[in-house]
Structure formats: structure tokens, C-alpha cells
Design goal:
The protein is an alpha+beta fold. The chain has two domains: 85 residues, Nuclear Transport Factor 2, Chain: A; 141 residues, 3-Layer(aba) Sandwich (Glutaredoxin), CATH 3.40.30.10. 42% of the residues lie in helices and 19% in strands. The chain has a five-stranded mixed β-sheet with strand order 7-9-8-10-11. It has a four-stranded antiparallel β-sheet with strand order 1-2-3-4. It has a two-stranded antiparallel sheet with strand order 5-6. Helix 6 packs antiparallel against helix 7. The longest helix has 20 residues. The chain is globular, with a radius of gyration of 21 Å.
Length: 245
């Protein structure tokens, strides 16, 4: 880790010196980025607090590039005075915007009457920790946490897990079908118009790489299983920190 920090510091120092030495050229940065990511649906470039270093949003991912387009930097930018992770903040903004495009009517929801927190949870029917989370769904609800499931079959579109997710969605009682599938029962094979592939692709755009992946309303990602009481405490702490800013 120490070598990684030193290496990044060296790049940033070189960038700073280059900026002092001459005017930077922003015109070719997007072209250079597009040559590396020709399939990217969107690329957005913005300035950072570091002179000569640009933030590049490629779909749902964040990287950095020098203003002359010569260097691409992967990693996190952290303000050492405030200890704020600027990269995670930028990713949260991207995820919040992407989540806003999701059709909430296609989610399978388990919620208390008046939830304190709403979490979007990308889940895989066959994921062990996803099943563990669902086994405690009543406890999450008792903690004031609403769980809004979206499908993320890790084996991909067309896999058996994908087919199970489709069958759960197409069931007459989606919540019961989800519960039974999480208990290990094989759902009756069903087909209908469904959002599973769309949700899977959204998960990829959001940076979901494993399940369960929990996302808060502000775009913060909490990867992996967190017990109900600990999750409530974590959400309370996050809310307290946000209100203090």
C-alpha cells in the first residue's frame, strides 16, 4: 500500500510541475479516453482540486487523467485535511443518478409500515450470504430498514440463477416465491415480461461485483452481508455524519 501511495504521489507531483511549466491542453483528453474505452456509453470529464488532474467518469466508474492526456491514474483521491474520500463521493453521486433511473415498480420489496431507511439490494437467488440476509428479513424490517430487491444473477444472463430470478418475478406471489427460493426450493419455471436482464445490467453500471450489494438512497454502496442491528447502527452513523456536514 505504501508503494502505491508513493507512486501516486509521484504522478501527482509530476502533473503539478507540468502545470506550472506550461498551459495544459484539455482538447485531446476525451479522445484519448475513448480510444481506451470505445464501448463506453458515456464519458464525462471534470476538474479536481488537484491542478492538472481531471476526473473521468466512464459509465459508473471513476478514474483520473492528466490534463495533457498522457497518464491515466486509477485509485482514490483523499483530502488528508478532512479525510474525505473524494473518489467515493463522486461514485456515490454517479450511483445516485443511475438509481434514479430504476423503475421501483419492478423491485420486490419487504418493508415495515414506516421505514426509517430504504435500501436497494442487488441479490442472487443462489448466493449464500444473500440467503442469510433474507432469513433475517423480519429483523431488518424491525430495525426500520426496507429492503427493495433487484436481481443480480452473478453467473450472468441465461444462467440457471438468472432463470430462477425470472421465475420468482413471474410468480403470482413474488414475495413468497422469493422466500421459498432463498430457502433452496426450486421455483416453478415461469416466463413473462420481466426486468431481470435490465436490473443485471444496471447492477454492472453501478459497480456491483458481488452479492448482496446494498445501496442507500444517496448512492453509498455497502458491499456484503451486514447483520440487522449492525446495519441499523451503520446507517444511523452515516445519517449523523451527513447531517453534520
Amino acid at each position: 500500500m505504501r508503494h502505491g501511495i508513493i507512486g501516486l504521489a509521484g504522478v501527482l507531483l509530476a502533473v503539478s510541475l507540468a502545470v506550472e511549466a506550461a498551459d495544459v491542453d484539455y482538447s485531446n483528453v476525451e479522445e484519448r479516453i475513448r480510444s481506451l474505452a470505445p464501448q463506453a456509453a458515456s464519458i464525462a470529464i471534470s476538474e479536481t482540486p488537484i491542478a492538472g488532474l481531471l476526473m473521468v467518469q466512464i459509465g459508473g466508474d471513476i478514474v483520473y487523467a492528466t490534463a495533457d492526456g498522457k497518464y491515466l491514474v486509477q485509485g482514490r483521491v483523499i483530502d488528508m485535511d478532512t479525510r474525505e474520500d473524494l473518489t467515493e463521493g463522486a461514485k456515490s453521486d454517479v450511483r445516485r443518478e443511475l438509481l434514479a433511473t430504476a423503475d421501483t415498480k419492478t423491485q420486490i420489496t419487504f418493508a415495515p409500515v414506516e421505514p426509517k431507511y430504504d435500501l436497494t439490494v442487488f441479490t442472487d437467488i443462489d448466493c449464500g450470504y444473500c440467503r442469510k440476509l433474507h432469513a433475517q428479513i423480519d429483523e431488518y424490517n424491525q430495525q426500520g430498514i426496507a429492503i427493495h430487491y433487484m436481481a443480480f444473477p452473478r453467473a450472468g444472463v441465461g444462467s440457471h440463477s438468472y432463470d430462477k430470478a425470472v421465475s420468482v418475478w413471474c410468480a403470482s406471489d413474488q414475495r413468497d416465491a422469493m422466500t421459498q427460493a432463498k430457502l433452496g426450493a426450486e421455483p416453478d419455471p415461469l416466463q413473462c415480461d420481466n426486468p431481470i436482464e435490465e436490473q443485471y445490467k444496471l447492477g454492472i453500471d453501478l459497480g456491483v461485483s458481488g452479492t448482496p450489494s446494498l445501496l442507500t438512497a444517496d448512492g453509498t454502496m455497502i458491499p456484503g452481508y451486514v447483520p440487522p442491528e449492525q446495519l441499523r447502527a451503520r446507517l444511523d452513523q452515516m445519517a449523523s455524519t451527513a447531517s453534520a456536514k
